[in-house]
Design goal:
By secondary structure, this protein is mainly beta. The chain is built from three helices and 16 strands.
Length: about 260
């Protein structure tokens, strides 16, 4: 109970403080609708995200409870937004993709990944490089775009699949001297996860959803050539972090385990 009160005080402090440090009163519904959003509503939150306003933040976990926590005492996150298998503890270094509410200025992480410091595999001579999380905005045969003007060649991507619009990537970059342009060095999926014996819960033409939270499209899905995903099929999938309508994952491969047969047919 005490911890919940302390967290609420932190939220009130952030919500009632403007950018210049002065106090202002916000509509009560704005504050509590944001705070009380349960994890089950996370997909609605994902659906409403404006990708252009997302930012990357490196920091440490300063408070951690069962199903939520804070980064740098100012960025709220639900634990169902974690995208790393490394255990999360208070003091853990993380990189987060963050959205700020324009009315309340409350910051909420939509993805949180645990990190080591320095970055795994980074040599001392490469410490001028930075990491950021970027969202794929479009894909051509040769290039992957992470905004209207920034792209990188497909061969830089280390994943075993072709990225798709909405996929989240971990980008290692440095800034070109004298410019504001990024020099991209390496790109990888933000994270991936094997999910066995999960259920196809909806289909709509060439697209569908697994377990009500994993989007797939046959236009970008590795699967047996003679298999078409069907409603209620049990499948094994490999999923990556992605921002899709009502979904925070995208299946990049799918193997059928048991195909559903409607007994009424």
């Amino acid at each position: 109970m005490v911890m919940h009160l302390l967290l609420l005080l932190l939220l009130l402090r952030q919500a009632y403080t403007s950018n210049n440090g002065s106090l202002k009163r916000l509509p009560e519904q704005d504050l509590y609708s944001y705070w009380d959003r349960p994890p089950t509503d996370a997909m609605e939150f994902i659906c409403a995200i404006d990708i252009s306003k997302l930012k990357t933040v490196r920091g440490i976990v300063t408070t951690l409870c069962t199903d939520y926590g804070w980064i740098n005492e100012s960025i709220f996150f639900n634990t169902d937004m974690l995208c790393s298998k490394v255990p999360l503890n208070t003091g853990t270094s993380v990189i987060a993709l963050v959205e700020e509410n324009e009315t309340t200025h409350i910051q909420k992480a939509i993805k949180v990944k645990t990190m080591t410091d320095p970055v795994d595999g980074t040599e001392q001579s490469e410490l001028d490089r930075e990491l950021c999380i970027k969202c794929v905005t479009s894909v051509t045969q040769d290039s992957i775009y992470i905004d209207k003007e920034t792209s990188f060649p497909v061969h830089l991507f280390s994943g075993e699949f072709m990225p798709y619009k909405g996929d989240l990537l971990l980008v290692e970059y440095s800034m070109k001297t004298g410019t504001s342009n990024m020099d991209i060095h390496t790109v990888s999926p933000l994270s991936s996860q094997n999910m066995d014996e999960v259920c196809v819960t909806s289909t709509d033409g060439k697209t569908g959803v697994v377990e009500s939270c994993i989007f797939f499209t046959e236009d970008s899905l590795q699967k047996p050539t003679d298999y078409t995903p069907g409603l209620y099929d049990i499948v094994n999938v490999v999923a990556v972090d992605s921002i899709q309508p009502h979904c925070s994952w995208r299946a990049v491969s799918m193997i059928p385990v048991e195909m559903y047969i409607d007994q009424a047919l």
